[in-house]
Specification:
The chain has about 260 residues and is mostly beta strands. The chain has three helices and 20 strands.
Length: about 260
Amino acid sequence: MPRGPKKHLKRLNAPSHWNLGKMTGVWAPKPSAGPHKQRECVPLCVILRDRLKYALTNKECVQICMERCVKVDGKVRTDHNYPAGFMDIVELDKCGDRFRVLYDTKGRFVLHRVDKAEAAYKLCKIKKVFISGKKIPVAVTHDGRSIRYPDPDVKANDSVKLDIATNKFSDIIKFEIGAMVMLTGGRNAGRIGTLMHIEKHEGSFNIVTVKDAKGATFSTRLHNVFVIGSGNTPDVSIPKGRGIKKNILQERAEAELRGEL
């Protein structure tokens, strides 16, 4: 019997939002263990090779990382399979590129270019708040951070604005009706809207209803929701499309206008 976790990942088993070609090889990069789940992250080598086209092969990705060119959330990462996930800041100092990892309306990771001021912070969703064994309050974020002695107002599902350099958070964005949210899972992943309603189901999944800027309403499970701002102002810049999902007829009409069909 094999022991321990699998060390390989086949291309057909890789998450579809990595957009790897089906016929371009048997294997895919398996993300290392890290702050994001294996199917909710994108490895650095996919970012460097398939998204940014800074490398042609996996070996070149290894060389770029080992030359300490890539930073994730302000820390140099030399592992080419390091998992970058939602809200992470990926920096390439040599060429001055800074990206925030976000979702587009089809639920695929998109590298959204940000300036130096915005790259200094990120939003973190609070997964749980608890009292540790030594009576120290601790808040745990969606990207695996444990923040000791958090603000007493912080509750689960809130978002906090975290300063990457100091690992301290400044603002709290409460999870409440009227908050601006982005969906991070489910069929509606990547859509942005206003939180309208929360249904509580004891022993089952709580359901939330969200309304987007065009007036379309949709529902999802509560754990798919990530608060990105209060009212109509997001605390981070959001990708083009503003999180509004178009149907296939609208997409076709726009493609015709652009002269692509």
